[in-house]
Design a protein that fits this description.
- β2, α2 and β3 form a beta-alpha-beta unit.
- The chain is α/β, with parallel strands linked by helices and 290 residues long.
- Helices cover 36% and strands 15% of the residues.
- Strands 1-5-4-2-3 form a five-stranded parallel sheet, sandwiched between helices.
- The protein is built from nine helices and ten strands.
- α1 crosses α4 and α2 crosses α9.
- Bound molecules: phosphoric acid mono(formamide)ester (CP).
């Protein structure tokens, strides 16, 4: 299948190539695809992924068609496959999809246009990971040997699961931390206070209240007191260490309000890099390189 669905089957050389290409675009390289049309099809809410794909497509001179799942025939029960097949036959050149269904793209094997995965269930968020990697690479100029701890709602997080797999492949040491009810076996556990003092990258995650079938055992204020990144905790981080978060952030839950834009935070830089990474991904796919 064409496009970008998961990073698991993307060789690390290709990942580095995409990051370098995004950096070239950030530094002024012009790429343009006039006359091309790409559909955005979001079955789940999104601000960053949806609209940074849209900005990326517009920057590439591509016409964006937003499929409204509330008013389209999705509401009459049309399947994902039939919806995407329809767009293929309408003559569009690619589709960006977000769905709560894990690995929804396995249904789309017969589709002949590029599919760009904007996030599937708890499994993959490839462009988020690429923009995270680009931000780390801009900071350190390497991945090998860097230590990253992902803190929070690991079990529900496609960002954590995607990042752990790819970061380890790129030679990073990856740890997880947070309340026991949020932890799975995707990486080695480290206590929160130890992580704060020893990591090069502290990556916080939003508590995904909408994905919790059972009520959280801990109150929000307990969570903030035990696992929230406060100014006092930031002062314990290594001098060069950075703070990342895929956002949206729950200010006052996993991160204190005054930390969101502190000098160690790269949260808004991540969002800016998302546009360049998505331009690099779409351009590579339209050039037949993905
Ligand atoms: N980081 C991220 O995926 O944000 P959105 O849900 O707003 O797209």
């Amino acid at each position: 299948m064409k496009g970008l669905l998961t990073l698991k089957d993307l060789h690390k050389d290709k990942i580095l190539e995409l990051i370098e290409y995004a950096l070239q675009i950030k530094n002024g390289l012009k790429v343009s695809y006039p006359g091309k049309k790409v559909v955005t099809l979001f079955y789940e809410n999104s601000t960053r992924t949806h609209y940074s794909f849209q900005c990326a497509l517009l920057n590439l001179g591509i016409n964006v068609i937003q499929c409204n799942t509330e008013t389209s025939s999705v509401q009459k029960g049309e399947s994902l496959y039939d919806t995407v097949r329809t767009f293929e036959y309408l003559g569009v050149d690619g589709v960006v999809i977000r769905s709560s269904q894990d690995e929804y793209f396995k249904e789309l094997e017969n589709i002949n246009i590029p599919i760009f995965n904007g996030g599937d269930g708890k499994s993959n968020h490839p462009t988020q990971s690429l923009l995270d990697l680009m931000t780390i690479y801009e900071e350190y100029g390497k991945f090998e040997g860097l230590k990253c701890c992902i803190i929070g709602d690991i079990a529900h997080s496609r960002v954590a699961h995607t990042n752990i797999e790819v970061m380890e492949r790129l030679g990073m040491e990856v740890y997880i931390s947070g309340p026991e009810e949020f932890i799975d076996d995707s990486a080695k556990y480290i206590p929160f206070d130890e992580a704060i003092k020893t990591m090069d990258v502290i990556m916080l995650l939003r508590v995904q209240f909408e994905r919790h079938e059972e009520k959280m055992e801990m109150t929000i204020s307990d969570y903030h007191a035990r696992y929230g990144l406060t100014k006092e905790k930031v002062d314990c981080m290594k001098e060069h260490a950075i703070i990342m978060h895929p956002a949206p952030v729950n200010r006052g839950v996993e991160i204190a309000d005054d930390v969101v834009e502190c000098s160690k935070s790269r949260i808004f830089k991540q969002m800016a890099n998302g546009v360049y990474i998505r331009m690099a991904v779409v351009s590579s796919a339209l050039d037949g390189k993905l």
